[in-house]
From TrEMBL:
Pfam families: Response_reg (PF00072)
Domain Response regulatory: start-end pairs: 6-115
InterPro entries, alphabetized: Bact_response_regulator, CheY-like_superfamily, Sig_transdc_resp-reg_receiver
Gene3D superfamilies cross-referenced by the UniProt entry: 3.40.50.2300
Keyword annotations from UniProtKB, A to Z: Phosphoprotein
Presence of the UniProt keyword Metal-binding in the record: no
Identification of the protein by name: Putative two-component response regulator
SUPFAM superfamilies named in the record: CheY-like
Modified residue annotations for 4-aspartylphosphate: D55
GO biological process: phosphorelay signal transduction system
């Protein structure tokens, strides 16, 4: 399956951002990388971002907050939370939680599911 769109990939670990970007590129998507919640909010544009993948613990603005603010601007935005810690928070409705470590195919499946739900 090849799709078109832009994915905002937010993680404070460079290696994880690289893995996220490579996985979404393999699906025909363009990755926009952010190393912090602040960078993510600067990069977010409702008309330009089709999916948000965010780590929960970022330091500063959390992934929870990034998702909440992004959803306020784009209510139907698909969101995938990733974390090496138990979710332990209030995720927004219609989101996916993917625990670290994850396998590339698990991320790809989550991306497909998120974008398919948007098209439905």
């Amino acid at each position: 399956m090849t799709v078109a769109g832009r994915v905002l990939c937010v993680d404070d670990e460079p290696f994880i951002r690289m893995v996220l970007a490579e996985c979404v590129a393999g699906l025909g998507l363009e990755a926009v990388e952010a190393a912090s919640g602040e960078e993510a909010l600067d990069a977010f544009s409702p008309s330009a971002i089709d999916l948000l993948i965010t780590d929960i613990r970022l330091g500063g603005i959390s992934g929870w907050e990034v998702a909440e603010l992004a959803r306020a601007l784009k209510p139907n935005l698909p969101i995938i939370y990733i974390s090496g810690f138990p979710s332990g928070g209030e995720k927004l409705p219609d989101t996916i939680y993917l625990p670290k470590p994850f396998r590339p195919h698990e991320l790809e499946d989550a991306v497909r599911k998120s974008l398919d739900s948007l098209a439905a």
